[in-house]
Request: fold
Amino acid sequence: MSKKTKMKCGAIVREVPKGSMKWYIAAGWKIVDEKNPKEVKENDETNSKKTIAT
Reply:
């Protein structure tokens, strides 16, 4: 088991020791959950042939 946890603040992702997690959380960092990745739903409502100006 790893002693570090991935945390994210904006575009910055760091591996943080579990002992200092409370300070990162207090600063607004979020824990990255790798076990349950979110399913990304692509929005395919636009058709490139319709949006091209001729």
Remarks:
- The CA atoms of residues 12 and 28 lie 12 Å apart.
